[in-house]
């Protein structure tokens, strides 16, 4: 039987968050992406996150090389800041937006530069700044190096090569994470690729220059522990030499075996190469000054994009995300729990499916997904956000009571494939909100010609919609007709009959909860979605 071993730590108030950091830029990660503008022109975007209690960032310069790390940059350009910085929102309402000399918080900056890159087998785009903070898992903070690669010329035998146009994937979630000690957290690194290329995620060693990795520090060691002497029982901890790309943070472990000998196993850190998601359970919180870096860790993820060209998958670009973990003590707060079931509304059809199951959707047609979450702490309110969503045409509406509706309408020209949207449920705990991010996956298929599409149900006019106490709607065909009203799980909650003039009035019972409902005629030819607000 597996049992969690929690290493002892000092359970104290969140001193990490309110200790004075050393005077440095304290950059907390970021990434470099690019978008094709046509005619070999590219807009390169740098997202940088820093501890906003540090000093101001220095200017950044974009360097573009086509000859490898040891060559002089072919092209350089200054990065220009776009818009004001954005303060992190992990703090509760009374502290949100806090950014001063005593509070550790993230501050996001966006910079862009536009360059012309002639076709080449491989361009390396980079920028760096000597501003790494002190962290537990690397030995000597140096430059924080950002990198992306681009191939805009593909080798074709017998030719000078095939030029291609490519834009890099863009991540949907910021790379600076607050993670609670001894609680399992799921962190998304989901990215959206506008070209529909296949994405592969990998954990990498952070870099301080081109092809120059940082040096990982020793992983905390522990000696054999005597659990009891009568009967004799001891624990042999898992032996790990150093932090690594695949285990960049100190985590809890399971125990295996029975007395008299138990052993450590299975560090609670997992990575999904399909989605970039990380699940981790930090194993200690030291509550030392922020400048010591004892509760902070760095990591890196590379997103590689492949395109099918001439019958083969070809690597055409990479982006690297520099991640930053900040461990804190959340006390008695428990993270929100997202329901493993989703209610999916496509046209007039409502189905229930598992959270990890891909939702089919046709390009150009909307699909609506109801997401539910609960909180295990009494009196806390839950809301949903799309965080820094990069997936085009995805919107989120909070419905209250831990429920939200995600609507995704892939444009008609969306390439077929899997697209993921990161949805975050967050509570209102103080000083730091608990968060749970889950990925909702859509399988987009190409839009069928209009003549080949099935006839859609006729929409029914309804007013008011959303409604609170009652709603009226007018059918599109005359005569008395029967309509069935179902909840978001497809369960019938009422049957109503229209008047001879085809009007309908529905006044649901007071105990019927707020949420999304569907009214549909018996033959399915007419339907309308109804949103009931909470009664006042």
From TrEMBL:
The record, for Gene3D superfamilies, names: Immunoglobulins
Signal sequence range: 1-24
Please tell me the species this chain comes from: Hymenobacter ruricola
Sorted alphabetically, the keyword list is: Signal
- This chain's protein is named T9SS type A sorting domain-containing protein
Looking up InterPro entries in the UniProt record yields: Ig-like_fold (IPR013783), Secre_tail (IPR026444)
Q: Which residues cross the membrane?
A: none
């Amino acid at each position: 039987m597996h049992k969690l071993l929690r290493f002892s730590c000092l359970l104290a108030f969140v001193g990490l968050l309110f200790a004075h950091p050393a005077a440095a830029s304290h950059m907390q990660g970021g990434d470099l992406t690019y978008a094709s503008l046509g005619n070999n022109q590219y807009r390169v975007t740098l997202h940088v996150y820093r501890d906003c209690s540090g000093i101001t960032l220095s200017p950044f310069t974009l360097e573009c090389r086509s000859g490898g790390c040891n060559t002089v940059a072919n092209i350089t350009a200054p990065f220009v800041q776009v818009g004001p910085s954005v303060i992190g929102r992990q703090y509760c309402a009374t502290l949100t937006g806090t950014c001063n000399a005593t509070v550790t918080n993230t501050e996001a900056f966006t910079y862009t530069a536009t360059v012309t890159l002639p076709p080449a087998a491989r361009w390396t785009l980079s920028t760096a700044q000597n501003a790494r903070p002190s962290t537990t898992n690397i030995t000597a903070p140096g430059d924080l190096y950002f990198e992306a690669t681009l191939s805009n010329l593909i080798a074709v035998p017998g030719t000078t090569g095939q030029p291609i146009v490519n834009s890099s994937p863009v991540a949907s979630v910021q790379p600076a994470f607050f993670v609670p000690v001894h609680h399992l957290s799921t962190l998304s690194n989901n990215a959206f690729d506008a070209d529909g290329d296949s994405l592969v995620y990998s954990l990498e060693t952070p870099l301080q220059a081109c092809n120059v990795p940082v040096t990982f520090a020793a992983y905390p060691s522990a000696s054999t522990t005597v659990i009891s002497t009568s009967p004799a029982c001891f624990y042999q901890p898992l032996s790990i030499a150093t932090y690594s790309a695949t285990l960049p943070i100190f985590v809890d472990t399971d125990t295996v075996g029975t007395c008299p000998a138990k052993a450590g196993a299975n560090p609670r850190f997992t990575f999904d190469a399909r989605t970039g998601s990380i699940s981790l359970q930090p194993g200690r919180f030291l509550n030392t000054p922020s400048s010591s870096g004892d509760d902070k860790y760095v990591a890196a993820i590379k997103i590689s994009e492949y395109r099918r060209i001439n019958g083969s998958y070809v690597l055409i670009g990479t982006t690297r995300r520099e991640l930053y973990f900040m461990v804190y003590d959340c006390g008695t707060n428990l993270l929100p729990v997202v329901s493993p079931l989703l209610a999916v509304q496509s046209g007039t059809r409502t189905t229930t499916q598992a959270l990890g199951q891909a939702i089919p959707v046709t390009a150009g047609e909307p699909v609506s997904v109801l997401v539910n979450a609960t909180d295990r702490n009494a009196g806390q309110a839950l809301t949903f956000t799309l965080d820094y969503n990069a997936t085009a045409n995805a919107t989120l509406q909070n419905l209250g009571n831990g429920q939200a509706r995600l609507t995704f309408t892939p444009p008609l020209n969306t390439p077929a494939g899997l697209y993921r949207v990161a949805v975050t449920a967050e509570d209102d705990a103080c000083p730091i909100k608990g968060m749970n991010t889950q990925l909702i996956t859509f399988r987009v298929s190409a839009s069928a010609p209009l003549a080949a599409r099935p006839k859609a149900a006729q929409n029914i006019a309804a007013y008011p919609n959303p409604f609170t106490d009652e709603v009226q709607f007018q059918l599109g065909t005359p005569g008395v007709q029967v309509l069935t009203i179902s909840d978001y799980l497809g369960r019938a909650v009422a049957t109503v009959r229209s008047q001879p003039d085809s009007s309908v009035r529905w006044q649901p019972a007071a105990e019927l909860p707020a949420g999304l409902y569907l009214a549909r005629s018996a033959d399915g030819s007419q339907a309308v979605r109804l949103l009931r607000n909470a009664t006042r």
